[in-house]
Amino acid sequence: MFSSFSSNCRVNVTTDPRPAVRMTRKRVSRPIRELHVTQQRVQSGKVGRKKKWQPARCGVGSNQNDKFLDRPPLARTQSMALLYEMVWRFLHALLYVQRTLVAWFRVHIWRWKRAVVGLLLPLALGFHNPKKTGPIGKRTSRRIRFGAEGRTLEKLPLHVGLLITEEEIHFTDIANLVVWCMAVGISYVSVYDNQGVFRRNNSRLMEEILKQQQELLGMDSSKYSVEFMKNGTDKQEHQVLSCQSMVKVLSPDDGRLSIVQAAQQLCRDVEQREKTSKDINVTVLDSLLRESKNIPDPDLVLKFGPVESTLGFLPWHIRLTEIISMPSHVDVSYDDLFGALQRYAVCEQRLGK
Amino acid sequence: MSEEEDVILETGESTVMSWIRERELSLLERLTANILKAGPMPKHVAFIMDGNRRFAEKTHVERQEGHSQGFEKLAETLRWCLNLGIHEVTVYAFSIENFKRSKEEVDGLMELARQKFNRLLTEQENLEKHGVCIRVLGDLTLLPTDLQQLIAKSVVATKAHNKCFLNVCFAYTSRHEIANAVKEMAWGVEQGLIKSSDVSEVLLSECLYSSNSPNPDLLIRTSGEVRLSDFLLWQTSYSCLVFQSVLWPEYSFWNLCEAVLQYQLSYRSLQKARDLHREDQALQQMEADRSCVAELLQHRGNGKPMDAQSRQKELLNYTASREERVRCFLNALQHKRDTFFSDLSSQAVVA
């Protein structure tokens, strides 16, 4: 019922045969209100106070069936219901328009800003910084800036999750985000969507990340690894920034299904008398769930898209995770990411205390 | 106690301590409620009532007073939910992590809980009128015994009501809840009621403390924090999460409407995601059943390959027997839990 209803609400205001259904719904909830109404009248003593559905007010047919008296005139209720529905559709149409406009402005103003900066930068370079010449110089300075900026934050998350709720995924933008995270100094980055698109296109994502890494960071000394491969030691020098990070691709199977699999394992142990049910507690379950992943819990989840939900992202692991929403991953900029990291840096975790 | 009831009759307003406020909505509020109700409404809302202590600091009152005001706001919010047609509410009252707070604060909170549950026991008629069923979720064995008994009495007293439901999470964390569910399933295996291959997502959901409720449609956290803090992690995977910066004791009807609006905006995407997940779940269950049947046939096997029809029949038989096992196990689990509460409740009477 609702899927057809909401698909209509963005087009035109159409009449649909819902009122009958809605009336039933209202009638179900009415008993509580009626009881309350009666109670209120008794308690408050304000007899003259008007309520919408008042039983036994009209003198007509007081000896007749109570149900008939309860029912207000059909036409009046129907028209009220239609009116509310129209207002509701109008409200949602307004919100839809507002969201679209905001998204449009965000993208177009950013593009316009970038074009202007692109025009002005050569001029600025000419005036202020004789040292920074050419694209290579620019890239190096930007890379140093990433690392330096990362160090200015009070706290940096150890593990960031990128949760994409949008249906259409732009791999280049995701790759950008991953590379920026690594450049800023975040050790673990997870990428997730609830339809398993990243899982299925693992290699494509890897290619994009490599490509963007070249483009954005330039030098190959930025070492990173995808999935379970972990590279050598951390080398942080002033000129050359080398970061060691791990990128992991997640899907809904890593969430509830992993917990179920861990539960099955424990139950098998109990079946084979290797454990008893009393041995099972949070620590045991936690160690089992950590065994297959071997990475710390996400400190921060950046959620991209209009859907306000985690959509099945690692339920066990996100117990203390900050969830920061961003409007979209399409054409996302480094400043957007850094803004989110700044927000994370100032949050205070009291841990129950 | 009778004086308090006289006060209710005279002024038409409840006393400060009541669990349900009797105030009716204003005209504008009712209008807004009716407009919102034209769209999809959440049936189950969860609240993380954060910000009591910050409110106390802001208004220069004692922390205890902040928590008290928080409870008042809860009573008011329940009223609004009923008016909006939301019949199930879950609240995060006290986390197991909160035991880390100072002894003074923890004792104060326990005392507040005692007062409220005592008040609840005196409000039986009111609760019956509204048909409110109170459930308490969490590891109650961590609480002082007298409070456990009070809680048990309240739960048993309101058990039969079925118009609206209030789930209070007390001494609760989601990880404990999930670990406890796994423990219960292991107990079932120990008792020979189920096999380890029967363990599934659906079965785990049925073993959680919240098994009698559907998953929350909407989760609201106040005071501006943007994390879940170990609350309903399993159940809110596909719920709408709304983080609002208002402090809990300052929560208003308009904040609630804003949250519901947010829910309505995300409704379609969430439905889609939930349906996708349900399909995946059903598929996984079927695969699991198939592999179990294949294993069974192998064990039983005498080398003859089975034709598709008899394999299908075996599969159906296996599924039916699995469902029967699970049903018996869940009945036993429910019985265990009911006995726990009724024993505690009768202890209270004796004491």
Note the topology:
The complex is a heterodimer of chains A (353) and B (351).
Chain A: H1 2-9, H2 19-44, H3 66-70, H4 74-128, H5 134-152, E1 159-164, H6 171-184, E2 188-193, H7 197-200, H8 202-217, E3 224-226, E4 245-250, H9 256-271, H10 282-293, E5 300-304, E6 322-326, H11 334-346
Parallel strand pairs in A: 1-2, 1-5, 2-4, 3-4, 5-6
Chain B: H1 2-11, H2 27-36, E1 44-48, H3 52-58, H4 63-83, E2 88-95, H5 103-122, H6 124-130, E3 132-137, H7 145-157, E4 164-172, H8 174-190, H9 201-207, E5 218-221, E6 240-243, H10 253-300, H11 308-350
Parallel strand pairs in B: 1-2, 1-5, 2-4, 3-4, 5-6
Helix pairs in contact in B: 2-10, 3-4, 4-5, 5-7, 7-11, 8-9, 10-11
Task: Describe what you observe in this structure.
The complex is a heterodimer of chains A (353) and B (351). Chain A is globular. Chain A is an alpha/beta fold and 353 residues long. Chain A has 11 helices and 6 strands. In chain A, 26% of the residues are buried. The N terminus of chain A is likely disordered. By secondary structure, chain B is of the alpha/beta class. Chain B has a single domain, classed as 3-Layer(aba) Sandwich (Undecaprenyl pyrophosphate synthetase). Chain B is 58% helix and 10% strand. Chain B is built from 11 helices and 6 strands. A 6-stranded parallel beta sheet of chain B has the order 3-4-2-1-5-6, sandwiched between helices. In chain B, helix 7 links the parallel strand 3 and strand 4. The N terminus of chain B is likely disordered. The chains are: A alpha/beta (353), B alpha/beta (351).
